[in-house]
Amino acid sequence: MRKLFLLLLAVCSVSLSAKNYIFERHTSLEGLSQNLVLDVFQDSEGYVWLGTFDGLNRYDGYEYKIFKPSDAEGSILGSQIIWIEEAPDGSIWCATLNGGVARYDKQSGKFTNFLNTEENPDFFTSNDTRFVHPDKDGNIWVGTLSGLNVMQPDGKGNFTVQKLLHQDDQPNGLYNNYINFIGSDSKGRVWITTQYSVSFWVPKEGEFSREFRHVLTSTENQNYREIQEVNNQYLLSYSRGIYVMHLNEQDYSVTSLVPLEQHVSFYFDVDLEGNLWSAGYNGLFLFEPQLDENQPYRMINHFTVRE
């Protein structure tokens, strides 16, 4: 479950409602390997994983354990950790900016690294990975700025990689190579956003599919980002803010895009109470769900940093 713990790095808060929130500040003084936090993820055991520009951190509520590249066997190779997710088997997967993707096995405490090497220079479309997403079938989706990679398990502990690239003569193929987000919904559909499109992958029986259903497309750079399914509807963020997207399941057309009342940032999360949290350049926004389809969320708090 992804959390907006990035805002724990804030000093304190200003609340617009009667409910008070307390934020703790975590920096290198509290044990972080580096103060530039790129991603935060809480796994099924409650550990909080933080990717920084200089190492992977695991926080147990009391102290940090830091993982960095080293000469030791089973160490992580990439130091710039940009995205973290947990697979159904409990393993932790990390996308790095300089070392492909890494899988952390909780039992052994060791990493397995997957990347282009001199022996295998074409394993991925690029070692500069931006997203990693394990799906329900055991596939590992890896997004880069130069295409999409799908790691398929062979049943022997290894993977074969399918590369998906945009091609002008394939209108149902990958719409754009610049991958902005990868995620799954409750139906198991894998969603891909790019600068110009919002799509989901269409699997085929007995063969690997290269087909996508394009739900939203644009000839202009809309910078489509995160998409999450919440209560049978989708929350979509892109350059104009966060929108509630209603999808017609018959023909997969978008029946409506309802904006939140205020422009916020690209990435967000929904807590256990259904409230939406979004971190923006001018603070942290908290929205609560409404029954009104014309205003599905109402902003109830705005937190800003102050010394």
Topology of this protein?
Layout: E1 37-42, E2 48-52, E3 55-59, E4 64-67, E5 81-86, E6 92-96, E7 101-105, E8 110-114, E9 129-134, E10 140-144, E11 147-153, E12 159-164, E13 179-184, E14 190-194, E15 197-204, E16 207-217, E17 227-230, E18 233-238, E19 241-247, E20 254-259, E21 268-270, E22 276-280, E23 283-289, E24 297-303
Antiparallel strand pairs: 1-2, 2-3, 3-4, 5-6, 6-7, 7-8, 9-10, 10-11, 11-12, 13-14, 14-15, 15-16, 17-18, 18-19, 19-20, 21-22, 22-23, 23-24
What does this entry look like structurally?
The protein is an all-beta fold and 307 residues long. It is 0% helix and 46% strand. It has strands at residues 37-42, 48-52, 55-59, 64-67, 81-86, 92-96, 101-105, 110-114, 129-134, 140-144, 147-153, 159-164, 179-184, 190-194, 197-204, 207-217, 227-230, 233-238, 241-247, 254-259, 268-270, 276-280, 283-289, 297-303. Strands 1-2-3-4 form a four-stranded antiparallel sheet, with no helix packed on it. A four-stranded antiparallel sheet has the order 5-6-7-8, with no helix packed on it. Strand 11 and strand 12 (159-164) form a beta hairpin. The radius of gyration is 20 Å and the shape is globular.
